[in-house]
Amino acid sequence: MKAKLSQPTAVITGSGFFVPGLPVTNSALPSTLDTSDDWIKQRTGISQRYIAPKKVLTADLAVIAATRALQKARLDAHDVDLIIVATSTPDNAFPSTAMLVRQTIGSTAPAFDLAAACSGFVYALSVGSQFIISGTYEHVLIIGAEKMSSFIDWHDRRTAVLFGDGAGAVVLQKQSSAYPAFSRLEAEHAEPELLHAPPKGPITMQGSEVFKFGVRTLTQAIRETLQQLRLQLKDIALIIPHQANIRIIQSASERLEIPMDKFFANIHQYGNTSAASIPIALAEAVEQKRIHPGDLVMMVGFGAGLSWGVSVMQMSYNALTLVHEAKDSALS
Ligand code: UT7
Questions:
Q1: 8-332 has CATH 3.40.250.10 classification
Q2: What angle do CA 132, 133, 137 make, to 5 degrees?
Q3: Of 117, 138, 200, 291, which is the most exposed, with the fewest CB atoms less than 10 Å away?
Q4: Ligand 1 center to residue 43 CA distance, Å?
Q5: Could you tell me what percent of the chain has a pLDDT over 70?
Q6: Ligand 1 within 6 A of 211 CB?
Q7: What are the pLDDT digits (tens) for 267-317?
């Protein structure tokens, strides 16, 4: 890994996630879908997903994920300088989902939504970290939250089996002497019909075209980011790709000759949660101790637009967390 710079940068000091209700297995999907557990598992890797009850809002999912991330970072809502919610399924045109989160958690920070489909979380990480690098803010809360179920046509087996609801969040904090946060945002021209949803849904997709785009961009993002940052694969603790299809991750792994255990995959449990998929995966990887303080993680998002993006960030602890962790371990 390259030498640490003393210029302040953004690091991740807390993460958390939430999925609503009970898991809905492939066999429990509505009978309106002419599908099978075997087809879904073999073609996507998905075994189950979580579907929120009708009255649950995207903001409700976001609030729980955000609260958990703040707890991990040992911060409270008053410490937060900015809230960004990456979502394509906001509860209202306005106020934004981020404003609903702000009010519920009791923050006084400015808050806004960012819509970039499944690339949304990586785009939001980039925006949030710029505010820290510029010296404007010290603590930024970034959330990816989606209620994809409200956009599903339960008669369309090509899309309905893929998606799930959930939210993940991270706290970004200013830190000197950390690996400089890196982000790259990309977009390419495409017919909107390739992956499309009108304001109230339903989602329609030309699956195989989007699949090819996913494999191509995931592969390109990893290869070019390692080259650009002059990093070796061993410098990256974990690659966290958008969870759209396990075969997309496997194809990138084969093309790049990177073993599958370098990638984090949890699509079997949650399906595709769009902008929430990367922060859910990140928070789960932390819980499973696949990532530790000091580690560098690479996150790659891709989706409608077509858009894609990559982010490399260091996991860290803030000073307060270290004090609390020491106390906790002394007590146990
Ligand atoms: O999050 C944003 C990014 N999203 C993605 O990256 C998704 C990318 N696309 C994919 O993951 C895959 O293209 C899908 C999982 C959506 C579809 O898999 P596929 O292997 O590309 O299938 P296909 O669309 O080529 O369809 C093959 C067959 C078709 O039947 P015929 O025409 O060959 O008779 C489909 O009608 O599979 C049929 N099919 C299904 N059969 C049972 C499609 N969906 C289903 C289903 N159950 N759920």
A1: no
A2: 25
A3: 200
A4: 7
A5: 94
A6: yes
A7: 999 999 999 999 999 999 999 999 999 999 999 999 999 999 999 999 997
